[in-house]
Amino acid sequence: MAKIIAIATDDFEDSELVSPKEALEGAGHTVDVVENEASKTITGKHGATFETVKGIDDAKLSDYDALLIPGGFSPDKLRVDDRYVELTKEFLESDKPVFTICHGPQLFIQTGITDQLTLTAYKSVQPDLKYAGADVKDAEVVIDDAHQLVSSRTPKDLPAFNAAIIDALA
Hints:
By secondary structure, this protein is an alpha/beta fold. The protein is about 30% helix and about 20% strand.
């Protein structure tokens, strides 16, 4: 089964980490929540908490089969840290799946390769991605086969998103 890294920090959108993590684990996969340091508790916008498994400095592409980036305010906080941007770029340039929802794709803008991506995001993030050159679609799930990228717009898309990410790992 696959080992997935979920990068998040405080103020992530609770359902966008809780729901995919539960779906992935329910399918037999492992999900490591990673932030700046190991054994730190991060808290979502609505109170969900997770203890981080490791710190970003110890997270390597070779240790994981896929990347999960939930939305909320977390991606905007992470995209100013080159460690998260570099890891995200490595995943996008690898043959490993990347799963993101809502505000998660904000992180892609800093990678310098947004113009190679086809994706969706929350309505207010879509123009930013378009200006950065992405091919943005308005659909509950968008799959970019060239980058093994699965993206969705909002928590209401979670059932379709979760099904798509499980399929991507099959």
